[in-house]
């Protein structure tokens, strides 16, 4: 009787340990597979080491600044980027060429549209449009350079864009350093002081073209 009882206990322990092992392996497999999509392996943006640089100009000079990302990812298959999407936090627009005593905060609020009520939609109106985003549709080699093609959305308006970029892909990391992309801001309804839209500005206009340059780092 004792032998029979001991046998039952032994079988139960073996079965329990086997179940635990299978469950653990299943959980581990799930964790790994969560990074694998139909497009490839997913790499998530490193928010602390990714940034959007911008510049805008007018007859009397230009301003420069940065904007932070909110979230994003790329997918990689066969050592090439197959897709990706990055969301930009427009509430983080920062001016880098001015000091606080030179009107830095005033210009930042003006760009965000958080200044006086009548200026809320002069530029990016971040309360209504808090995020912009770029969706990568393809990456191709062209004229000896790597070109990223995608759709850029600002203020609810989406336009196709493409730009050259240096891309580094390793087992655990993807780095993208774009060249400067020149945008016509009026295509995205950023119309304030545009001489192409308002004829009576004389020399108080702001150029329609703005430049953006993106540095992105992603990890598995």
In the predicted model, the low-confidence regions spanning at least 5 consecutive residues are 2-6, 18-34
Question: What is the ordering of alpha helices and beta strands?
Answer: HEEEEEHEEEEEE
Main beta sheet strand tally, sense and closure: 11 strands, antiparallel
What's the CATH H-level homologous superfamily?
Answer: Lipid/polyisoprenoid-binding, YceI-like
What does this structure look like?
This protein is of the alpha+beta class and 220 residues long. It has a single domain, classed as Beta Barrel (Lipocalin), CATH 2.40.128. Helix content is 19%, strand content 48%. The protein contains two helices and eleven strands, in the order H-E-E-E-E-E-H-E-E-E-E-E-E. It has helices spanning 2-33, 104-112, and strands at 36-37, 40-45, 51-58, 61-77, 80-95, 131-142, 145-154, 157-169, 173-178, 181-184, 209-219. Strands 1, 2, 3, 4, 5, 6, 7, 8, 9, 10 and 11 form an eleven-stranded antiparallel beta sheet that branches. It is elongated, with a radius of gyration of 26 Å. It starts with a helix and ends with a strand. Mean pLDDT is 86; it is low at 2-6 and 18-34.
Write a compact overview of the structure shown:
By secondary structure, the protein is of the alpha+beta class. It is built from 2 helices and 11 strands; from the N terminus they run H-E-E-E-E-E-H-E-E-E-E-E-E. It has one domain: Beta Barrel (Lipocalin), CATH 2.40.128.110.
């Amino acid at each position: 009787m004792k032998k029979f009882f001991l046998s039952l206990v032994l079988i139960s322990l073996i079965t329990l340990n086997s179940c635990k092992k299978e469950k653990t392996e299943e959980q581990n497999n799930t964790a790994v597979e969560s990074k694998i999509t139909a497009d490839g392996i997913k790499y998530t943006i490193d928010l602390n080491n990714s940034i959007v640089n911008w510049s805008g100009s007018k007859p009397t000079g230009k301003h420069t600044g940065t904007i932070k990302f909110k979230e994003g990812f790329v997918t990689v298959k066969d050592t090439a980027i197959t897709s990706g999407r990055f969301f930009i936090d427009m509430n983080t627009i920062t001016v880098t060429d001015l000091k606080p005593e030179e009107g830095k905060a005033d210009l930042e609020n003006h760009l965000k549209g958080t200044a006086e009520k009548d200026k809320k939609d002069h530029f990016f109106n971040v309360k209504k449009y808090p995020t912009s985003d770029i969706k990568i549709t393809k990456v191709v080699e062209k004229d000896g350079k790597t070109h990223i093609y995608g759709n850029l959305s600002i203020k609810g308006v989406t336009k196709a864009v493409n730009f050259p970029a240096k891309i580094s892909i390793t087992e655990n990391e993807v780095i993208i350093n774009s060249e400067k992309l020149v945008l016509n801001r009026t295509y995205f309804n950023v119309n304030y002081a545009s001489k192409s839209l308002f004829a009576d500005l004389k020399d108080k206009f702001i150029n329609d073209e703005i430049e953006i340059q993106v540095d992105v780092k992603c990890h598995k």
